[in-house]
Amino acid sequence: MSEWTLKRSSFTPRKGPVLIVVMDGVGLGKPNEGNAVHLARTPTLKRIWARHPTTQLRAHGIAVGLPSDKDMGNSEVGHNALGAGRVYSQGAKLVNRAIESGGLFEGEVWQTMVKSCLQHDTPMHFIGLLSDGNVHSHIDQLFALIRECQRAGLKKVRVHPLLDGRDVPETSALEYIDALEALLAGINQSGDRSYLVASGGGRMLVTMDRYEANWGVVERGWKAHVLGEGRRFRSAREAIETYRSEDPELIDQFMAEFVVVDGSGRPVGTVEDNHAVVFFNFRGDRAIEISRAFDQDDFPHFDRVRRPRALYAGMMQYDGDLLIPSRFLVSPPHIEKTMGEHLARNGIPQFACSETQKYGHVTYFWNGNRGGKFDDERETYVEVPSDLVPFEQRPWMKAAEITDVTIEKLATGQFPFARINFANGDMVGHTGDRRAAIVAVEAVDLSLERLLDAMEEMGAVTLVTADHGNSDEMYEVDKKTGEFKRDEDGEPMAKTAHTLNPVPFTIVDPAFAGEYELDPSVDSAGLSNVAATALGLMGYQPPGHFDPSLIRFKP
Question: Residue 435 is part of which domain span?
Answer without folding.
Answer: 18-89+336-553
